[in-house]
Write a structure and sequence with these properties.
heterodimer; A: 533 residues; alpha/beta; 6-stranded mixed β-sheet; B: 362 residues; 9-stranded mixed β-sheet; 28% strand; globular
Amino acid sequence: MRIGIDVGGTHTDAVLLDQHTVLASTKALTSANVKDGVLDALDRVLQDSGIAHCALSAVMIGTTQFTNAVIERRELTPTAIIRVALPSGAMIPPMLDWPDDIAAAVGRHVYMVHGGQTYDGFPIAPLDEQEIDAAIEDIAAKGIDRIAISAVFSPSDPAQEIAVGERVLARLPDARLTLSHKIGGMGLLERENAAILNTSLLTLADNVISAFGEALREREIDCPLYISQNDGTLMSAEFAAEFPALTFSSGPTNSLRGASVLTQLSDAVVVDIGGTTSDIGVLQGGFPRQSNVAIRVGGVRTNFRMPDIQAIGLGGGSLVSDAGETLGPQSVGYRLLTEGLVFGGDTLTATDIAVAAGATGIGDAARVAGLDSAVVEAALARIHAIIDAGIDQMKSSREPVPVVLVGGGAVLVSRSLGTASELHRPKNAGVANAIGAANAQIGREIEQIVSYRTTPREQVLSQLQQQLTAALLQAGAAPDTLRIADIEETAISYMAEESTRLRVKLVGDLDLSQGRSGAGKTAPGPAQVGDQA
Amino acid sequence: MTTISHEDVEDLCTGSVFLATGGGGDPYISQLLVTEALKQYGPVDLLPLAELPDDALVVAIGEVGAPSISLEQLPVGSECLTVIDRFEAFTGRSITHLVSFEVGGANSVIPLMAAAARGLPMLDGDGMARALPEAQMMTFAIEGVSPGPAVAVDYTGACVYFDVTDTTLYERQIRALAMTMGGMVFTAEHPMSSEQARRAVIPGTISFALALGRLLREQAGNATLIEAHLSTLFAQSDYGVFKHLYTGKVVDIQRKTVGGFDVGEAVLESTVGNRSTLRLTIKNEFLLARIGEKIVASVPDLITMVDHETSAPINAERLHYGQRVTVFGIGCPPHYRTEAALRVVAPRAFGFDCDYVPLEEL
């Protein structure tokens, strides 16, 4: 039995799950004090289900606290960045293209030193200890103890980031660091940005993660605590306190993962129909298909992989015009409950059409009884055509696919869709995020530029798989459940044929029979992949 | 004479991605560098080819190598200054004007950096009017300009001097060199006298890319709405012909890497009316477009694909199933329509078994 909690900006939702069965769920407002909201959610699901706290084997929390801190430029700690790359990048210093307000919140404490290596492992410049020490002294003199470190091609060989990190800790033993290779793949500026954001969030992360732990301890819940990360897998609370930035896209990811758990589908298109827009995402092998474009978080370019989500301008509040031929993108939005016809207003919305067609009983159906049936028919056809076109654009082949409808506007779809092989409308879709958080999979990924000319493909893959396996076992995965979730290979144009950017992701199921240690104690942290390279 | 300031760089990059016909790489790093350089040194004079004095020494500068590598190992930023210094030291001559290799992709803006720092004017023109993968495809080579004396520098400032007269040979050498020098080098090459430059440089392409980028920003929106504006702009230029080829949805995309090139084919299904599929052949750039069995556009004419809703140009690397796109065909300037040019830039030069037919005859 496990509890999944989604701590969002406005709502804190929780579910208590036995395998895939929802025993209890709750939806409450997020409290100013994070711990109180979590305590409240825990109390409600335990009370409603009648389950004893000692029957729990894990608690999983998904949170947008860190994303919101970046977007709102609050609770960020001043952070220094040491980039190991000179002479390369000399005229493109770190944070060059950051918006001024967030750069000011973090401070432009930028240091560049010699080092790094080329794509084929040749040193760009030797490390200069005096230069590094001078940077560290300057950082120390400013009283800064949050430091990000980046180096060219560190995902392929992190040795220089590790060496500089050790030098910083020798001088500033209490400093907190983020080494860029631990938080991102290829693309120096984006990975460096991610490392800086992560470092600036470490203080907030300590507070938030320990508040979660305290909440568990106060209710004497004696099981491991996990936090959901960007790709939909879990990390230990201890690891999350080191890498809060890995939660940046866990919100939309958990929503898609929740739809997967509720329907037991691993490959499907998920349509979340809200008041103004519908968000369409794709599940592949149980995980969201990820976007491959550079993602900006609070205006800062990062290479975090976010779920590939397409928003279309159709929702329950969409305005209906042209005798039903046009729907949206204008919408009454949250004012649907006062302005829609069936709610006593005088605006014809998509929801009114659904009620007039008998697809749902919400509101006062008598208020739409007089609508011209031709208009209702035209609008219904248009609603289905718009959603069909949106799904078609997202699915990855011509064949119809299973479609999962969630969100308050799901009632708009009352007929079959040409793109859908089957339609699912799961119960409990309102707490899909919390259900998605309560998944029991743990994952790690690694990205490198490799040359199959130097090392055969099978050998490269098996080396990376070994590193990832060690990391996952240490993080608490059951050995017989490990599997490769994704291998992505991108050839590098203008280079020899065998030069390839390789990304491998390994996932496994949590072994929930182990790790029942002290109250609210964090689960064992995963191995640091880079240390083994 | 016009000038280019730091405020123009983003528009110039947008225009150059459109003219890169699916190739050219991500110009983001160059855009950052050039913007900073123009902020620091002030605007650069963009000299019309017709105003080139008789005693000029025009040199082409840019980067050669794998664009994706430089997203990790950033350029120093001073390479294009070093390469000018080394060129002048080796040849004992002073460069008076800089020119771009190709207006498509990152190389459109790289000479601006050096021009700003050295106070040199940049010629309003380039050697391709688009993007193409190899040096012998530049009009400089086609018009008989020798690639050497040429100089290549890497991130350490290390320098290689080329005394070579055949551009195809030079292309092989510089490509191999780039791979051993961190994956990317900056070169100064194809030095031209005024008389040579007037023949070999395609005029007006930099100011055209700037106007194109500005139009794409100001008219941002559906491709159907922007088409008339684009058509007018291209009709008034050396490109001349502008055609809507297809609006449809990507239903299949296949890619593999052969000899350092991204080779593949994309299939589009029509979303307007009931037309046959459009097949696009890719070799870094979009090179051939067929509807059914009929070729509707072929290299060296330009085939550009834009997102149908936003009109943002789409790079071949980012193509995926389901995208709604509009494909335009654009005539190449007269420089690419000569017999000598077609020997190196027509479909057969890329290994395709078909002849070039000008867009306006299709």
